Amino acid sequence: MPAVGLLTVDLHFPGARSLKDKRRILASVKDRVRKLNVSLAEIDHLDTHQRARLGVVAVAAHRDHVDRVLEGVVVEMERRDPGLVLATDLQWLS
Q: H or E element: which one contains 92?
């Protein structure tokens, strides 16, 4: 049975002065993370210029692989922008 993991990531953009700034930074983050073969979407704080919540989903044959992929997502987000990630929550959907 395949494993499906949903990672919820809360982000903070202290330098964003407008929604346009936030969208520019968020687009960069999303482009880097998509290279890890996951699906993601902004799911909360859509109208707040210094916050975002992303939902990131990974699917694989085994849980340990999904866990490694989702850990890699957080590492990639923090690699270029330390302090960007405020909180994470992992839920297993299968």
A: strand 85-92
Please report, for the chain, the start and end positions of each structural domain, with discontinuous segments joined by +.
Answer: 3-92
For residues 10 and 53, the answer to whether their CB atoms sit within 8 Å is yes
If we measure between CA atoms, which residue out of 5, 7, 9, 11 comes closest to residue 26?
A: 11
Task: For helices 19-34 and 63-80, give the axis angle rounded to 10 degrees.
Answer: 140
- Top-level class of domain 3-92: alpha beta
State residue 3's pLDDT score: 96
Task: Quote the pTM value.
Answer: 0.92
The span from the CA of 22 to the CA of 12, in Å, is: 9
- Residue carrying structure tokens 């909180």: 87
